[in-house]
Design goal:
Blueprint (H helix, E strand, L loop, with lengths): L2 H5 L32 H7 L20 E3 H6 L1 H7 L2 E4 L2 E5 L7 E3 L8 E4 L2 E2 L1 H9 L3 E3 L1 H5 L1
Parallel strand pairs: 1-4, 3-5, 4-6, 5-7
Antiparallel strand pairs: 2-3
């Protein structure tokens, strides 16, 4: 037992005052206690984003559109054929991009053969380029009519 403790026996607070010796009194409270009072400057300097709401929560499920350019499509025809998403039809190919996991056909690049492409949506430029090459773009809304 340290000599100071022996000396202070019977003094109730052992020379620390009323609160200093109880719990976390010497450090101003447990955890985040006092961030709006005596630890405010610390909070402003080291944790300025502590209070308040930040950002937003988007509750709707967002479906990102997976698109492919015509140039990428032409390069990946053998891959689609091996996976069963494309088959040879006359001089060109019949390609099902929806089954291959694509939602949209974009018009970047050139088309050298007549493709019949089934896809959810396509840009006007993509449709025009495929038709110029002698092919067709089949969209679901066109199939319903």
């Amino acid at each position: 037992m340290p000599s100071r403790t022996r000396k202070l026996r019977g003094s109730r607070t052992h020379g620390r005052g009323k609160k200093h010796g109880r719990g976390a009194g010497g450090r101003g409270g447990h955890g985040n206690a006092g961030l709006h009072k005596h630890k405010f400057k610390w909070m402003v300097k080291y944790d300025p984003m502590h209070f308040g709401r930040h950002g937003f929560t988007r509750h709707a499920q967002i479906h990102e559109t997976k698109a492919i350019n015509l140039e990428q499509l032409v390069a990946r025809v053998p891959e689609f054929e091996a996976a069963g998403h494309a088959k040879k039809a006359g001089a060109g190919f019949e390609i099902d991009l929806t089954a291959a996991g694509f939602d949209k056909l974009l018009g970047g690049g050139r088309v050298g053969a007549a493709f019949t492409i089934t896809v959810q949506s396509a840009s006007e430029q993509a449709k025009a380029k495929v038709q110029e090459a002698g092919g067709h773009v089949l969209l679901p809304e066109a199939a319903k009519e």
